[in-house]
């Protein structure tokens, strides 16, 4: 080994001496140092490029995994104490050139116009470009947004692309004189030969016909003096076997019927389920004893629904019927007969409250996270993506019936919007119009489209052509706090169990109360039955709403007065049999008091006929532009 490695001293030339091992080469040290710095810089640049310029390692899936879905939160080993931020991506915004058609007198002008399509993750760290108004629930529900001019600035989406502006004009079909020389008429022999030769092609299924379709002259004309094929045709509906009687006045001794829905969230006995819902023990045991034999058990399984029919007269509540459902499938019903004994009975008419008995989304408490409120999240995201405050306020108002704006955002909440702009910057102007919104908050999806009818009225409708505006609101005190629900409970003053036929919303004395829908005031004044200052509003289709314990009734709210949805009709108080300032709100449908939070309310107006067909064409064009998929779930509240 010594021989192979060599043990002779190195050969030196030009007077150079052998290096001293105790010395350090300055060139070697500086070269090593520069190499290390260069390597670190190159690795940093490569990592930054791989992350696409983002400084946060959190992605929406990680943020969703960090949501604590349990009530008792605890930090585990390795868990993050601060929720990771969600970064917005540039790909969430796109500017499109879309052909639109606008009616200008007797002409239709087709032009290309820029539109902005944004998909906003509301939980991202958006920075609002300008100040926005503080949350005011009363202003959201009561204020009416400004309606655009009858001639919409944006118009409707055109079905084809155009290179430049095109002007189209429709003129009546010339049914009178023509510039072309008319051909001579056919002889009878020619007509017969034509029918025989073409008759084989004119078939209706297996039946051969020999007739041609006529052309309606009105189809090609807009003159009022043209031929009207429908003149002289009319229809009148005559009602038979109908008797109109005066409405019966309601007194404290008037019998009132109500259905109480008791969902079983776990395996439980009928007695315990009823007692937990506020029924006295004797009534619970009596109902269980009569219900158990036909049911085959005195227990309710998880997911069962117990429906109890009650007649209340004054201070007395009488149980007259009980039904058990497994999900929405009816199992058994018992009811009182003429001898006041419970016997098996037929299934009562189905209620929507049965299917939604376990739907508590409206009262669920969001998990604690370091995220803003939904109201702030919508404004911050919308303003940062170039929308105006007026356009954002319109979105807030349209979503108000289905979204709790004071709840905290979830990492999966998002808002998609499609609106007109003026240039490639993608920023809206006061003349911009909102055409489409798709919002997801938790498991609730709300999607609506803008549509202008033949009269120039503009509104927003869901995919089926139903107005997004609710027929009735569920909460007449937007700033109130939910305190007591619908069902049997122990009366705080009288000291015994009775049916609570409404919902209580607590708020400071003097808090405004708004009308939950358009209607006519039926009663406004003092009620001797314990309701104090009471206002009853009659709505369309048999719906009524009752507002009780008011400190005062608004000026002009008198029987026969018309009110609109969102109008202030009174103020919260504690008049009548009340232990503190709150509003006792009741909803009555066809004379029966129902749960305002669970009943499935009808929507607003619905499009029909030619208007619905035009809306469906407009909706399909927008869905095609945005590559929309069918909605799996829509808002039901």
TrEMBL record:
Cofactor requirements of the protein: Zn(2+)
Transmembrane feature ranges: 26-51
Swiss-Prot/TrEMBL keywords: Hydrolase, Membrane, Metal-binding, Metalloprotease, Protease, Transmembrane, Transmembrane helix, Zinc
CDD domains linked: M23_peptidase (cd12797)
Superkingdom: Bacteria
Entry's Gene Ontology BP terms: proteolysis
Domain M23ase beta-sheet core intervals: 498-596
Any one GO molecular function term: metal ion binding
Protein name in the entry: Murein DD-endopeptidase MepM/ murein hydrolase activator NlpD
Species of provenance: Rhizobium azibense
């Amino acid at each position: 080994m010594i021989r192979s490695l060599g043990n002779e001293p190195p050969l030196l030339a030009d007077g150079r001496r052998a290096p001293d091992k105790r010395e350090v080469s300055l060139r070697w040290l500086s070269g090593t140092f520069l190499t290390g710095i260069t390597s670190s810089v190159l690795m940093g640049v490569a990592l930054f490029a791989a992350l696409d310029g983002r400084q946060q390692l959190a992605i929406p899936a990680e943020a969703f995994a960090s949501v604590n879905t349990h009530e008792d939160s605890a930090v585990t080993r390795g868990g993050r104490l601060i929720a990771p931020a969600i970064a917005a991506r540039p790909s969430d915004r796109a500017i499109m050139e879309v052909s639109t058609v606008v009616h200008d007198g007797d002409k239709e002008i087709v032009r290309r116009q820029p539109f902005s399509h944004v998909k906003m993750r509301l939980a991202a760290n958006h920075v609002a470009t300008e100040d926005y108004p503080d949350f005011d629930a009363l202003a959201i529900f009561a204020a009416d947004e400004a309606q655009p001019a009858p001639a919409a600035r944006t118009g409707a989406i055109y079905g084809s692309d155009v290179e430049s502006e095109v002007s189209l004009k429709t003129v009546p079909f010339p049914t009178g004189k023509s510039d072309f020389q008319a051909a001579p008429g056919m002889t009878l022999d020619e007509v017969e030969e034509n029918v025989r030769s073409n008759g084989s092609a004119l078939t209706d299924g297996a039946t051969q016909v020999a007739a041609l379709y006529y052309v309606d002259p009105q189809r090609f004309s807009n003159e009022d003096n043209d031929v009207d094929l429908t003149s002289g045709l009319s229809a009148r509906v005559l009602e038979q076997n109908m008797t109109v009687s005066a409405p019966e006045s309601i007194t404290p001794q008037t019998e009132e019927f109500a259905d109480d829905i008791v969902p079983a969230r776990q395996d439980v006995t009928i007695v315990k389920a009823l007692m937990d819902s506020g029924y006295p023990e004797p009534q619970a045991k009596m109902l269980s004893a009569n219900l158990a034999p036909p049911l085959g058990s005195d227990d309710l399984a998880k997911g069962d629904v117990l429906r109890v029919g009650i007649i209340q007269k004054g201070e007395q509540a009488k149980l007259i019927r009980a039904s058990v459902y497994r999900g929405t499938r009816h199992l058994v019903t018992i009811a009182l007969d003429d001898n006041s004994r419970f016997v098996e009975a037929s299934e009562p008419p189905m209620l929507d409250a049965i299917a939604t008995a376990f739907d508590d989304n409206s009262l669920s408490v969001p998990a604690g996270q370091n995220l803003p409120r939904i109201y702030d999240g919508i404004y911050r995201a919308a303003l940062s993506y170039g929308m105006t405050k007026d356009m954002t306020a319109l979105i807030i108002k349209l979503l108000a019936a289905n979204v709790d704006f004071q709840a905290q955002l979830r990492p999966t909440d998002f808002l998609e919007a499609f609106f007109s702009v003026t240039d490639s910057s993608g920023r809206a102007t006061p003349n911009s119009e909102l055409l489409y919104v798709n919002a997801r908050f938790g498991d609730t999806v709300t999607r609506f489209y803008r549509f202008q009818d033949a009269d120039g009225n503009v509104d927003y409708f869901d995919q089926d052509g139903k107005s997004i505006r609710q027929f009735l609101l569920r909460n007449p005190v937007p700033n109130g706090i939910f305190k007591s629900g619908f069902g049997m409970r122990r009366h705080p003053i009288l000291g015994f169990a009775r049916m609570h036929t409404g919902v209580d919303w607590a708020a400071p004395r003097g808090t405004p109360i708004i009308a939950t829908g358009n209607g006519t005031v039926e009663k406004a004044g003092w009620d001797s039955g314990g309701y104090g200052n009471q206002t009853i509003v009659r709505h369309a289709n048999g719906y009524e709403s009752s507002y009780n314990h008011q400190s005062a009734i608004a000026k002009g709210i008198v029987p026969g007065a018309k009110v609109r949805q969102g109008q202030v009709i009174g103020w919260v108080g504690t008049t009548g049999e009340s232990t503190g300032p709150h509003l006792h709100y009741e909803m009555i449908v066809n004379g029966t008091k129902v749960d305002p939070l669970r009943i499935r309310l009808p929507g607003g107006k619905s499009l029909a006929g030619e208007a619905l067909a035009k809306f469906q064409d407009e909706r399909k064009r927008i869905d095609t532009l945005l590559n929309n998929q069918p909605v799996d779930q829509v808002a039901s509240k």
